[in-house]
Amino acid sequence: MVELIDSLCVGMRMHAASDLFLHEGRPPQIRLNGQLMEFGEHLVTAGDIEGLWRHCGAGEEALDRDTTYVASDGGRFRVSLFRYLGQRGAVLRHIKAQIPDFETLGLPEQIISSWIARPSGIIIVSGRTGSGKSTTMAAALDWLNRRHTRHVVTIEDPIEYLFQPQLCLFTQREVGIDPESFAAGLRHALRQSPDVVFVGETRDMLSAQTALQAAETGHLVLTTLHSSTVPETIERFVQLFASADREGAQRVLASQLVGILCQRLIPAESGRLIPAIEMMQNGGVTRKLIQEGRFVEMGDHLARGDHDVNVNFLTSFARLTRAGLISQETALQLSDNPHEMTRVLRGISGASVARPRS
Q1: Does the structure show a pLDDT above 90 at 94?
Q2: Which pLDDT does position 306 carry in this prediction?
Q3: Which of 110, 161, 246, 279 is deepest in the core (most CB within 10 A)?
Q4: Which helix (H) or strand (E) holds 161?
């Protein structure tokens, strides 16, 4: 039985919390605006956890498992079941039914929409866990759905947003239920006459290799990676390949990459979480850097900030601060280079940091 957990799921949706944490013998906790707090008066019992595991199809001896849960009010959750110190636990992330648009998310619509409207190539959204990658991808596909006629095949683990077809036809497939893996799902997707393929995460060489082949044969491929910066994203993608294959992978990636959007969610003055972004649109200079494996120089290229489509996190933090969206304290605390951030905010390097357009 999952009465307690169901009531917690309904309650956390009412409070607009993002995650629900369940550990045997402890009070449930939620993440609200990035902060953890206790939620409810009852301790989570072993019976509560066992009921959730059974409801999700996990046997008594099951280990870690990713699945989904639908609450009594229709709310949909991504569930991560796990074991710790001989006990069981779970984290449930609320999957929002309404897909926010680029403006609501605080993302550059003109640039991302120009990427998603391309007939072929690879678009990568990267960031740490919980940085909003899936929501950004959903917003991009929803933008496409309202403006272009495309067959979109998604391979997800698990499915996070359910798309209602408008102009696009969606074929959504969940790893472990439909295809057995991302690589298998991507390989089979190419036989289903897709225009756009969304791969929830590129995890291995076979997935990366098939993604490059799909782009080369005229498909638009969208995928995510767990990485913290644009240069790290490129390097991590290439390192999925065996050493002997990396030079060839760099050559194909250099020609097929449309752009990379790397994002972090940071606390705003309004109390919300908003994205800081590092972004690169692939062009002449970056193609050469990728092909030659000069990933460190990619960071220098972004730091010059000579075009709106090439922006590093330092510039993004400065823009958000100058626009009054985040405090200087937040910018300094979360910046990778607080000393340089201080210089920029004092105007010493202000010439290299574009101010937000009025």
Answers
A1: no
A2: 67
A3: 279
A4: none
* Sign of the torsion formed by the C-alpha atoms of 222, 226, 227 and 231: negative
Distance (Å, rounded) from C-alpha 181 to C-alpha 218?
23
Q: What is the number of other CB atoms lying within 10 angstroms of the CB of residue 160?
A: 21
pLDDT at 350 over 80: no
For residues 130 and 305, what is the distance between their CA atoms, to the nearest angstrom?
Answer: 27
The owner of tokens 């290799």 is 209
Least confident of 78-87, 193-202, 209-218, 277-286: 78-87
Q: Residue 286: which of 330, 230, 239, 341 has the closest Cα?
A: 230
Tell me whether the omega of the peptide bond preceding residue 158 falls within 30 degrees of 0, making it cis.
Answer: yes
Q: What is the pLDDT of residue 223?
A: 97
Structure confidence at residue 279 (pLDDT): 96
Using DSSP's 3-state secondary structure scheme, residue 51 falls into: helix
Q: Which domains does the chain have, with CATH numbers?
A: 3-95 (3.30.450.90), 102-311 (3.40.50.300)
Please compute, for residue 277, the number of CA atoms within 13 A of its CA located in the half-sphere on the CB side: 25
